[in-house]
Design goal:
Blueprint: H1 2-23, E1 29-35, E2 41-47, E3 50-60, E4 65-69, E5 77-88, E6 105-113, E7 116-124, H2 128-131
Parallel strand pairs: 5-7
Antiparallel strand pairs: 1-2, 3-4, 3-6, 4-5, 6-7
């Protein structure tokens, strides 16, 4: 009786995982269920990475949180990043994470880790030099003619 209940729970969990994956972009889920010794069941769920495109709404360097806006009217979606998160420019060159700023359009790759969406890679849609502010200082001096 406990074995049937455990199997039903595993099937329900797999169905929920597949439903959640169907709502995400470009995701695939592999569910493996095996029967072990003494009637025990082991289930493992593996989710591949998903891709998205959006604009950085806010980022919190100390809190490891990055908010992305997929459309101009949508509420930002919260993602987490780790020290392993890679930031690259369109040519594939590595860029410092500290170079990211709000309103930068990016594409990103993320995985689901429990309830958290963790960004693994951020690709800028423009080279970093496009976003760097160039300051120009103009100095005007006037000279008086000698009498």
């Amino acid at each position: 009786m406990k074995e049937n209940r455990l199997i039903k729970m595993c099937v329900a969990g797999a169905a929920c995982a597949l439903l959640g994956t169907a709502l995400a972009q470009d995701a695939s889920t592999t569910t493996t269920t095996t029967a072990g010794a003494a009637g025990t069941t082991s289930t493992s769920v593996s989710t591949s990475s998903m891709n998205g495109t959006g604009t950085i709404a806010t980022l919190s360097p100390g809190g490891n949180v990055l908010a992305m806006r997929t459309t101009t009217t949508a509420q930002p979606t919260m993602f987490y990043y780790t020290p392993q998160t890679v930031v690259v420019d369109p040519a594939g060159n590595t860029v410092q994470f500290t170079s990211l700023r709000p309103n930068m359009p990016v594409t990103y790759t993320y995985t689901k880790n429990g309830d958290h969406m963790v960004i693994t890679k951020v690709t800028l849609q423009q080279p970093i030099s496009f976003y760097e502010k160039k300051e120009t200082t103009t100095t005007t001096t006037t000279t008086k003619p000698n009498p």
